[in-house]
Specification:
heterodimer; A: about 325 residues; 13 helices; globular; disordered C terminus; B: about 290 residues; mainly alpha; two-stranded antiparallel ribbon; 11 helices; 4 strands; about 75% helix
């Protein structure tokens, strides 16, 4: 066995532990920084939105990156979860860490039930139709929330207990990543990815395509709901316009920038997309333009045959220049 | 009487949807993609006409003509830059690019003109027509007349001219059309140009009917027009007409008799019902999938 291969095997063996250790280190570092008052209020206020976006992006990546179906209603599921969890928190009177945990689970479950109700009839469709129908559902959910009494209507829901802490958000993000990662690399995940790569082939060997689609859809909706509860209990108020089409697109931009089908990418790009507009003050006007350029450029670079050919040529040239590289770039 | 005037209102809105839906349907038929940016081309058309009228003081006719030309060129450029490199890529990639283009147009318009809506003086010189108690606005009359005229011209163009037959051939089978000596690239460009030109006309009619323009005017309108195209059967030109008008009537009646704020939800509910019950739409043919 070659040295390179050996180290690869070792890496794969210890990868989960390394990631877990990295997560613990990041958590401890942030807690220490906070403990010694080294974070400004502004920096602190960004921590939870970053984690919320991580959860949203990782869960959207399950349907868009791994299942290969574009859903434009992710903000709709987020809003269902947010309203369900926050309404529950208003009427629940128990000590704090338990209340938010119950609300998180409840918000997630309600969003998952909506995912199931919407997913079963709709996932027979595919491609463009599915995208437009999920967009339609997002809009329907939003206009229903605006029209209902107990959700506070267009003015929104106020006075929600602000009980999202960094620790809880961090734990939720970690659980989301672990669950989705394990799902994607499980047997079910293999089925989900096979649907993306070739639906007809998957169907022809007897794969229950609809079942797996609904499974991915419901799990993604669950975590979107959890993110919604975290979001609502962080801000203390909810308004229906927070969850419009633009929010769904923002999540999509995060997934596309990080790379569809890459969880690490989603996490990194969630951080970048959340922090960037805050760092570049005054760039807020250009944020939409930036999103648009990200979507177009990433897609053309990643999906067009010509760009891929160029990338391969470039990679081959770099490999040839390496002093110990094999000429031609191909080993074995 | 209230009902009839709401019905006519629906016909007016529906005609605009029909014009936009035509662009969706033609592009979908030929390029097999949902051109998400199509709705925003309406906005570009309306703004072009607005600029021509307000800062260059052009006559209305010339302004509309310039709007059509600008939009046609824009449609072709978008196709060349954003969609053509992805012709062999997965539909997901194309769809995401189209969303990007839609966002791009909106944000550029917002940067140039600001995000506030501005009022648009109607350029239609016709006054309101009254039949008994019923009063029909000049805008409604012109909108419906223009839509019917365009529908007739487009049907003639597709069925009687060589370029039209080429479009039909490309939408049927791209490879076979190429073997028969049809220039596929040029046909696709032409389709985008015609669709976008129609969107410019729809944009002007929209601005005249509603009296305002804004950077986001196209996004919801465009999505509703897509609903209309699906309702009528995507890929079918008379289908787009029927779907558009039906959707306009549903929307305006539900606004009048159910709830203003729920009317969007009802329109989208129609879309979901159609897709679940009859995915090929009213006039569309269902296609079997070839492996």
């Amino acid at each position: 066995m070659k040295k390179a291969e050996q180290s690869k095997v070792m890496w794969n063996k210890y990868k989960p532990f390394i990631w877990a250790a990295a997560a613990v280190v990041i958590y401890i570092v942030i807690m220490l920084l906070d403990g010694f008052d080294m974070l400004s209020r502004h920096q602190k206020s960004l921590l939870i939105p970053i984690l919320v976006n991580v959860i949203l992006a990782v869960s959207l990546n399950l349907t868009t990156g791994f299942l290969g179906e574009l859903t434009l209603g992710h903000a709709g599921f987020m809003s269902v979860g947010a309203y369900a969890g926050c309404l529950l928190s208003l009427s629940l009177d128990i000590p704090e860490p338990f209340r938010i945990i119950i609300c998180l689970v409840f918000g997630g479950l309600v969003a998952a039930v909506f995912g199931l109700i919407i997913g079963v009839p709709v996932l027979r469709l595919k491609g463009d139709y599915l995208a437009i129908v999920t967009l339609a559902f997002g809009e329907i959910i939003r206009s229903v929330i605006v029209n209902l009494e107990f959700t506070g209507g267009a003015a929104g829901l106020k006075g929600i207990p602000r009980s999202t802490t960094f620790t809880i958000a961090f734990l939720c993000a970690a659980i989301t990543i672990v669950v989705i990662r394990n799902l994607v690399y499980s047997r079910q995940g293999l089925a989900i990815r096979s649907i993306r790569d070739n639906r007809i082939a998957a169907e022809s060997i007897g794969m229950p395509v609809s079942k797996y689609k609904v499974l991915a859809f419901v799990i993604a909706a669950f975590f979107a709901g959890v993110a919604g509860v975290l979001y609502g209990q962080n801000l203390g108020h909810l308004s229906p316009s927070d969850f419009d089409y633009n929010k769904s697109i923002e999540i999509l931009v995060i997934v596309v920038l990080g790379g569809m089908g890459s969880l690490t990418g989603s996490v990194i790009s969630a951080i970048v997309i959340t922090v960037l507009p805050e760092v570049l003050r005054g760039a807020d006007d250009y944020r939409m333009l930036l999103y648009a350029v990200v979507l177009i450029v990433m897609m053309i670079l990643n999906a067009s045959p010509k760009a891929q050919e160029m990338k391969a040529n470039l990679a081959a040239r770099f490999r040839r220049r390496k002093p110990d590289g094999v000429p031609g770039g191909k080993e074995e | 009487m209230e009902f009839i005037s709401q019905f006519i209102n629906g016909l007016n809105v529906g005609s605009i949807y029909a014009l936009i839906a035509l662009g969706y349907t033609m592009v979908y038929g030929i390029a097999k993609m949902l051109n998400f940016a199509h709705g925003d081309i309406i906005m570009v058309g309306a703004y072009t006409v607005y600029v021509c009228l307000s800062s260059a003081n052009m006559p209305a006719f010339a302004a509309v003509l310039i709007g059509i030309v600008v939009c046609s060129l824009l449609g072709m450029v978008i196709e060349k830059i954003a969609y053509k490199p992805l012709r062999k890529a997965s539909p997901l990639a194309v769809l995401i690019t189209a969303i990007g283009v839609s966002y791009f147009l909106q944000s550029v318009a917002q940067l140039i003109f600001g995000s506030r809506e501005v009022s648009f003086q109607s350029i239609i010189p016709l006054g309101a027509v009254s039949i008994g108690e019923l009063k029909i606005s000049g805008e409604a009359v012109v909108t419906m007349a223009v839509t019917i005229l365009i529908m007739i011209l487009l049907t003639l163009f597709i069925n009687k001219t060589k370029a039209g037959s080429a479009m039909l051939a490309v939408s049927e089978d791209k490879a076979a059309a190429e073997l028969m000596g049809i220039n596929v690239n040029r046909t696709i460009s032409l389709t985008f140009a015609i669709g976008s030109g129609l969107a410019a006309i729809a944009g002007v009619l929209y601005a005249c009917s509603y009296g305002f323009i804004g950077p986001y005017m196209g996004s919801m309108t465009g999505i509703k027009a897509f609903v209309a195209a699906v309702l009528g059967g995507i890929g079918s030109i008379p289908g787009a007409m029927i779907g558009g008008i039906l959707l306009g009537i549903i929307e305006s009646l539900s606004k009048a008799y159910i709830s203003t704020r729920l009317s969007d939800a009802i329109v989208f509910g129609v879309l979901i019902l159609v897709l679940v019950l009859r995915p090929s739409g009213i006039l569309g043919k269902s296609r079997t999938e070839k492996v």
